């Protein structure tokens, strides 16, 4: 079994020759930034301000400390931190130690964290003591008991674990890290029962970061607000914190995306840009608190992660006083941006065009044949920063990628003559709940573990605010369980809160699918259709 699928040599050579893959590692990247922007402020977290030099020094001290404690180059380390400055020193520290961060998101609980640890064989887990009212130390103890985890590093009060504050150490040479190797593992939104992990190399990711910084016109005067969870691909690299560091700008970490937290921060720090999912953009536009804060420093708000409908997109300039940039990206690679010189109509009605001239786009019908120009089909893509396979997932890779290496995005799109893509829907069994992705099969599997559940089908139902919410259709055996009981059951299985179905509907049978098929995939589609028609 292969851990990951490298690009075929002819492609790798082409990407190097084109200057996309430069041989730079994340460790080099930070060193070069620290050299160029030494005393400028890189990171703002509350009252703390770290310069580029300080971030560089902290990252190296972390790297030495992790190595001294037995983390080895190539080891996987699950990182689950809130939006705090230490996220940057930990992650760059791991990069410099040659270890691979596995980026968990704050809502993940034991079901997800155990799965990440099992798939990757992670030896360490980095958390905050508690955040958002949840104590991560107990979760860590539970996962450590059941997996190969050897170390738990805790920001704050460590309890029975190791204090992150005790990790930094001095040291000499750091291990050699190769730019063509995997640098970290991102999470896929997924559409299967088991989470999928995305291996990204230094070369491929840094290419997307540098180009994103150019497209988004970042510079030393950029002040970027991290309103989404910092470990997500969007605030990480589109252009995100890495794009901002590349350009010598400043990152401002927000502990939450709500207007009461974010608006004063924008005013205080002179924030110039930020990236959010559609429900947050709507919340900001609808907030009366807008009038109480000076938001005039904002030049652009990026919206992505889920479809931003044109009616909402049209309101941005008038209500937030800044430009809109739509971002249609995926942790697997491909990222599309509307450009600042695009006509307004293109910016409000399309989801942008790819970063690279070598992003190959195919839009195909159900048989894999390309659709005529302008028609809707599934988006397949291949390119210098799009993966060729998931991590340790050989069997799944056979269906998720074409034999010639195109990633099947599962997104239904059409292409405008300008090359911009318009997202029209989805052909994957995933629910996009305001940017948070939920694999239907994963939730169904958890429901099926309940003794009174005979069968379950999870579908997305339209929602004005989130785009979609989740509905679980359940056929019971014997005494039907109540909705609250099923929800409590799912929470008890350690599932992230955003994955708990918003609605649970008990039914006697699932609709027939016409040809008498019984696969849950067909049922899901049929139920989703029935629901849409009933609305
Ligand atoms: C971003 O990344 P992921 O990996 O959480 O989710 C990717 C999926 C896409 O395949 C698509 O289904 C959906 O999220 N999506 C959008 C969208 N942006 C993402 N659907 C409609 N309109 C959009 N603008 O979500 C992500 C990664 C990097 C940058 C931005 C978003």
From TrEMBL:
Domain AMP-dependent synthetase/ligase: 31-391
Domain (AMP-binding enzyme C-terminal) ranges: 442-517
GO biological process: siderophore biosynthetic process
Family annotation (InterPro entries): AMP-bd_C (IPR025110), AMP-bd_C_sf (IPR045851), AMP-binding_CS (IPR020845), AMP-dep_synth/lig_dom (IPR000873), ATP-dep_AMP-bd_enzyme (IPR050237), DHB_AMP_lig (IPR011963)
Catalytic activity, EC: 2.7.7.58
Gene3D superfamilies hit by this protein: 3.30.300.30, 3.40.50.980, Luciferase, Domain 3 (2.30.38.10)
UniProt enzyme class: transferase
Alphabetical list of CDD domains matching this protein: 23DHB-AMP_lg
Alphabetical UniProt keywords: Ligase, Nucleotidyltransferase, Transferase
Keyword Transferase: yes
Pathway: Siderophore biosynthesis
UniProt KW Disulfide bond keyword: no
Family under the similarity heading: Belongs to the ATP-dependent AMP-binding enzyme family.
Name listed for the protein in its UniProt record: 2,3-dihydroxybenzoate-AMP ligase
Species the sequence originates in: Saccharothrix espanaensis (strain ATCC 51144 / DSM 44229 / JCM 9112 / NBRC 15066 / NRRL 15764)
């Amino acid at each position: 079994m292969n851990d990951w699928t490298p690009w075929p040599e002819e492609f790798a050579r082409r990407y190097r020759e084109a200057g996309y893959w430069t041989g730079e590692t994340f460790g080099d990247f930070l060193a070069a930034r620290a050299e160029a922007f030494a005393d400028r402020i890189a990171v703002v977290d509350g009252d703390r301000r770290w310069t580029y030099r300080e971030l560089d020094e902290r990252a190296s001290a972390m790297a030495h400390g992790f190595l001294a404690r037995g983390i080895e180059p190539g080891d996987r380390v699950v990182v689950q931190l809130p939006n705090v400055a230490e996220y940057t020193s930990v992650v760059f520290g791991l990069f410099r130690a040659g270890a691979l961060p596995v980026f968990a998101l704050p809502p993940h609980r034991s079901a997800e964290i155990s799965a990440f640890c099992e798939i990757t064989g992670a030896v360490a887990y980095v958390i905050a003591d508690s955040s958002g009212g949840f104590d991560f130390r107990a979760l860590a103890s539970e996962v450590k008991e059941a997996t190969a985890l050897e170390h738990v590093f805790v920001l704050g009060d460590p309890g029975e674990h190791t204090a992150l504050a005790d990790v930094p150490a001095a040291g000499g040479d750091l291990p050699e890290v190769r730019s063509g190797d995997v640098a970290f593992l991102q999470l896929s939104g997924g559409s299967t029962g088991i989470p999928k992990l995305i291996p990204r190399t230094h070369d491929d990711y840094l290419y997307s970061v540098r180009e994103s910084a150019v497209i988004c016109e970042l510079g030393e005067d950029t002040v970027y607000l991290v309103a989404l969870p910092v470990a997500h691909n969007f605030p990480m690299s589109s252009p995100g914190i890495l794009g901002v560091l590349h350009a010598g700008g400043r990152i401002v970490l927000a502990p939450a995306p709500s207007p009461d937290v974010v608006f004063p921060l924008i005013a205080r720090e002179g924030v110039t840009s930020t990236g959010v999912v559609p429900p947050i953009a709507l919340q900001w536009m609808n907030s009366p608190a807008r009038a109480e804060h000076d938001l005039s420093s904002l030049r652009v708000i990026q919206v992505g992660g889920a479809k931003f409908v044109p009616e909402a997109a049209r309101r941005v300039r008038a209500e937030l006083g800044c430009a809109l940039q739509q971002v249609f990206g995926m942790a697997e690679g491909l990222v599309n941006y509307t450009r600042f010189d695009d006509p307004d109509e293109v910016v409000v009605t399309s989801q942008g065009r790819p970063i690279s001239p070598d992003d190959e786009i195919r839009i195909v019908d159900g048989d894999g044949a390309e659709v005529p120009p302008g028609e809707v089909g599934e988006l397949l893509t291949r390119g210098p920063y799009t993966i060729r396979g998931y991590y340790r997932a050989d069997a799944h890779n056979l269906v998720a990628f074409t034999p010639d290496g195109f990633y099947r995005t599962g997104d239904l799109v059409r292409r405008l003559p300008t090359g911009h893509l318009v997202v029209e829907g989805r052909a994957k069994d995933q629910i996009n709940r305001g940017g948070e992705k939920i694999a239907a099969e994963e939730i169904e599997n958890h429901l099926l573990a309940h003794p009174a559940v005979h069968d379950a089908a999870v579908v997305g139902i339209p929602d004005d605010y989130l785009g979609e919410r989740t509905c679980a259709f359940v056929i019971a055996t014997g005494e039907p369980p109540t909705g609250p009981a099923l929800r409590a059951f799912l929470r008890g299985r350690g599932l992230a809160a955003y994955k708990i179905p918003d609605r649970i509907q008990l039914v006697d049978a699932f609709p027939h699918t016409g040809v008498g098929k019984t696969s849950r995939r067909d049922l899901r589609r049929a139920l989703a259709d029935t629901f849409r028609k009933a609305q």
